[in-house]
Amino acid sequence: LRYKLNESPPADVIFSAEQIQGNKRNVIPVYALPNYDQNKYYDLEKVLRDVVASDDDRNLVGMQSGDRANVMPTKKFTIPVDVEQVKKTMKFNAGDSILSELKIDLNKNYLQKNDLAVLALIAANKWKRPIYFTSTQELRELGLDKYVRLEGLSYRLVPVQSSGVETEVAYNNIMNKFAYGSANKNGVYFDEENRRHINSIRLAHATVAKALVAYDKKDSAKKILQKYDQNVLESNVPYGMTSNRANFHNSISADFLEASYMAGDMNLARKVNQSVKKDLEQQMSYYRSLGEENLDNEQLAMQAAGVLNNKGGNLSEKQRVFAYDILSSYQLLEQLKQWETQYKAGGAPSTEIKPDTLITPPAPKDAP
Known about the structure:
The chain is an alpha+beta fold. It has helices at residues 44-52, 83-89, 113-125, 167-176, 192-214, 218-231, 248-263, 266-289, 297-308, 317-320, 323-344; strands at 27-29, 42-43, 60-62, 68-70, 76-80, 101-105, 110-112, 132-133, 148-150, 155-157, 164-165. The strands form four sheets. A four-stranded mixed beta sheet has the order 8-10-9-11, with helices on one face. Strands 2-5-6 form a three-stranded mixed beta sheet. A hairpin with a 5-residue loop joins strand 3 and strand 4 (68-70). The radius of gyration is 25 Å and the shape is globular. Residues 345-368 have low confidence and may be disordered.
């Protein structure tokens, strides 16, 4: 980032190469220095330049090892917004309220060098160049997740809070730029890793479609959903498919199903619903066959919930291995049942599961 690349100028990353060389600033603890009110917000760029990048002894804190460490003096920061600049370079949804500054609250007690790189790049950029992320997971700890907006498969940093999706850009990207790895050709095999990528693509279609519905653009939402359906054959990547990530595959298909209902594409909704329901019912039948077979789906799920919450649960040893899958399969089946009833009756969309059936187990270690 320090060097010109093709037509892109160098980026200001605040810290010099010497300041981050070796183990320098590997970990920056949050430590309240004098003169920093922990209830106030401070300019992020100024704090990074004047405190974190400073080796002035007044900005260092003694460690048990005897070393002196650079620190972050607060968890609250502001990032000023050049409103006129962003109006020229960004697309906004109707009704957007452009902020004059971002307020971010760190959700961690220390920063690693990679965190510093992200914050420094944002602070010094001053909205001159677009900054994108491929995931929001890491952004939550940095307090940035509420300021990013989906534009397809990536999220752009924007001066709008809780913005969700930039519908015009996302629609254009999906309809004109997305590719599907030959998934529309018969007989193309997608292994587990590549099915995960297809899942990300399918989720993007669903998320953008829901946003379009929210802006009363159901026709555009239908086109988004049908674009996916036409480019990914079910024979290659079915909507309903057992996965080893606690029904992650089916959960994303459920999002796609809900988007189909919301957009009013009942033919596509029936297709997705039948595929997902068939797989979930087959899963429950298999899990039941591993133990006491006279339990119905709800009873089997309640026993699995007991196991997951360390409250007993009368499952065989073979069934216990699938406790999370049993519970998630049952909950998804209940959700599908609710949507069938609601949308046949013309009811409003809902993502709620009956309180007496919703039991939240601890997430599996490999859950995304």
